[in-house]
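Entry for the shared binder. Reason: the reviewer on the internal report wants the predicted structure included alongside the sequence.
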Amino acid sequence: MELRQLQHFVAVADEGSFTRAAARLMISQPGVSSSIKELERELGAQLLVRRARRVELNEAGRELYASARRVLAVLDATSEQVRRGRRTAKRTLAIGSIPSFAGLDLAALVSKFVAQHPDVDVAISIGFPRDLFRLVHTSEVDLAFVTMPQRQPPDGLHLSPLATYPMVLACPLGHRLADRSAVTLGMLENEVFVDFTTELAARQAVDEAFAASGIERQVRVTCNEIGSLLELVAHGIGLAIVPLSLAQATRVPIRLVQVDEASLVWTVAVATRHGALPNPDAQDLWNAVVDTAKPVDVAR
């Protein structure tokens, strides 16, 4: 049984005439008749009652007709879906993020977004705030997840804070401060530190807090990635003051201790160009992030 035979059979049943079916199918009348006869031969059953002026279905024909209509309907729907898919141009949502996805569960949000937007691809660029600000400004990314800078943000950009997290002291196991519930900056005066590079907001916040307290701080090693920084802490090279949300996402064997200093916070924000978000896709992702971005608890 061939698909064309089902199409010819349904057309004859609908029209009640071989001639009208042939006109509808835009083929010759003998071609339709031959196709139906071949179908009946293959099935071993007569399907039509041929009268003088009309062709009617018999019982076997009525059974086949119902099934044939369903098959052809599914085929038509599938064909239309494929054609529509070809006509629908793929879009790409370009987003940027600082490393570790800014302490947000961005991977889960992107997973949900792509499931709800099958016609949208997502391109993620990982970088540091200075680079991401440039990408947003030049429209190379639609929005970027960054940290609020300690200084004035670049012109032409808008920063929308999402969540503020405390910064905590990271200690190696066995350090004299590791079992304390909290420390002050004064208790850290003679300690050696490892820290982020000076271009990052977390480092700037720590430097400014110590400077405001009149405490000089010795930074022996700098690093621009949280996992590597905490590995340095675990090996006893120095202490670090880091955002809790980033530190909790690692599995490095260290202790995290609360720091009693109100200025030591780390704020995640979304950077966009001034004005509305560039497209509805960016707005949808924005809404999902705003609904889920929440500060974390200081307790570990």
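Summary line for the report: The two ends are 68 Å apart (CA to CA).
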